[in-house]
Amino acid sequence: MSEPIKESDGTRYVAPEGRVLVGRSHSGDETGTTRYVHAQVIGPRGEPLTVVHGTWSASMKESSSSFEAPAHQAIVGRRHTGDENGLTEYLTATLLPSSAVS
């Protein structure tokens, strides 16, 4: 789990190398703190998958949007500014078998 972050000030959080975001906890109002939960992704044969970072999404209004990572990708980062009407963006990554990465 990450250290607490005051996300309303626009701090970007990116999961540690080789890990993806699997959860998020927020306490308080928009000036409260957020913590992210990250995990290693394991392939069908029990091998760790390689996480290859892509690009940040376009900014979207938090209160009227939703975001899903594309197929074979996962969310690895998030940035939010302001209150529930502020802007949020996401960083996705492609998940590959370690043998596919040279």
Task: Explain this structure.
The radius of gyration is 14 Å and the shape is elongated. It is built from no helices and seven strands. It is 0% helix and 52% strand. It has one domain (9-100). The strands form two sheets. Strands 1, 4, 5, 6 and 7 form a five-stranded antiparallel β-sheet that branches. It has a two-stranded antiparallel sheet with strand order 2-3.
Strand content: over 45%
Largest sheet: 5 strands, antiparallel
H/E element string? EEEEEEE
Report helical residue fraction.
under 10%
Structural class: mainly beta
Which stretches are poorly predicted, pLDDT < 50 over at least 5 residues?
none
Question: How big is the Rg?
Answer: 14 Å
Strand segment count: 7
Number of domains: 1
Shape: elongated
In short:
The protein has 102 residues and is mainly beta. 0% of the residues lie in helices and 52% in strands.
List the helices and strands and how they pair.
Blueprint: E1 9-14, E2 19-27, E3 33-40, E4 49-56, E5 60-61, E6 73-81, E7 87-97
Antiparallel strand pairs: 1-6, 2-3, 4-7, 5-7, 6-7
State the main characteristics.
elongated; mainly beta; five-stranded antiparallel beta sheet; single chain; 102 residues
